[in-house]
Amino acid sequence: MSGRLIYLIGPSGSGKDSLLDAARPRLAERGCRIVRRVITRSAEAVGEAALGVSMQQFTEMQAQGAFALSWQANGLAYGIPREIDDWLAAGDDVLVNGSRGHLPQTRERYPNVLVVLLTVNEAVLRQRLLARGRESVAEIDQRLARNARFGERLLAEDPKVHLLDNSGPLERTVEGLLACLDEPAACA
């Protein structure tokens, strides 16, 4: 029996890292592993608990076949360790913090992937992005416009994507994620 790949995607600021941190104990109880990504960002950078490597290290790891999935976005390189294939083969579910732009390649490699799109009300997302202080107001406006276009296009092109709203309390989102994993139709 093989496990299931759960591919969590959503715009920057939607709360993917917060959701994964909050859901980690309950997912572990279910035998679901959360993958630690490799990112070309320093380990001290604020955000997820990823393995930070240099671009040279990332390139070497990629050449050695260390990644099951890899992509570049926002000036950074991201890798999902190849060990997920062993976990899936052993029957474990594996949850990946993925990339919306890399979804077609992920579907090609893992045809039975469960895609969960974390959404958030635009006003809440704007507030979160402003609070992070990583981008100017103009850059945030551009990001919000891209996000709206992407979400509409993705749902039109891929009806198998499951929506999960993270505009309210985090515990409600955790419950929604768990319900989604129990019965994929329950995500929306």
UniProtKB/TrEMBL annotation:
Transmembrane segments: none annotated. Pathway: Metabolic intermediate biosynthesis; 5-phospho-alpha-D-ribose 1-diphosphate biosynthesis; 5-phospho-alpha-D-ribose 1-diphosphate from D-ribose 5-phosphate (route II): step 3/3. PANTHER family: GUANYLATE KINASE-RELATED (PTHR23117), RIBOSE 1,5-BISPHOSPHATE PHOSPHOKINASE PHNN (PTHR23117:SF8). The keyword ATP-binding applies. Residues 2-185 form the Guanylate kinase/L-type calcium channel beta subunit domain. This is Ribose 1,5-bisphosphate phosphokinase PhnN. Catalyzes the phosphorylation of ribose 1,5-bisphosphate to 5-phospho-D-ribosyl alpha-1-diphosphate (PRPP). ATP binds at residues 10-17. Keywords: ATP-binding, Nucleotide-binding, Transferase. The keyword Aminoacyl-tRNA synthetase does not apply. The gene is phnN. Its EC number is 2.7.4.23. Belongs to the ribose 1,5-bisphosphokinase family. It catalyses: alpha-D-ribose 1,5-bisphosphate + ATP = 5-phospho-alpha-D-ribose 1-diphosphate + ADP. InterPro entries: GK/Ca_channel_bsu (IPR008145), P-loop_NTPase (IPR027417), PhnN (IPR012699). It comes from Pseudomonas izuensis. It is an enzyme of class 2 (transferase).
